[in-house]
Amino acid sequence: MNAEKTEQKKEFNLKEAVIQYFRKKGYKVEENVSLEGYRGVQRTFDLIVQKGRLTQCVWVKDWKRTIGINVIINLDKAAEEVGLPNPIIVGEQFSDHAKAYANRRKIMLLTTRQILQSLKG
Prior knowledge:
Elements: H1 2-8, H2 14-24, E1 28-36, E2 42-51, E3 54-61, H3 69-81, E4 88-91, H4 96-105, E5 108-111, H5 112-120
Parallel strand pairs: 3-4, 4-5
Antiparallel strand pairs: 1-2, 2-3
Helix pairs in contact: 2-5, 3-4
């Protein structure tokens, strides 16, 4: 009986949900993209989303713990180095310092809850 329940219940994939979220909003989505930065360093992003002239990089962090400021700073640096403004990060929750930094630097923070609510509606 437990095996049947396990088979019926599909494992939640946050990255797939994020892809659906952006496609629903009219974005073109590319997965697992590596771009060379200004200093020749390869930077890897979970997604690159594009709508019109706007192209943004996305990191998806399917972590149970709070995402801290260091992760946000690293995304900011990676995005800046490859010339993509206003990066996006998706996660369960963000620390207050991460939120403050993201607000100052125009980094979009999306929670798992926001993604799921948008897909339901």
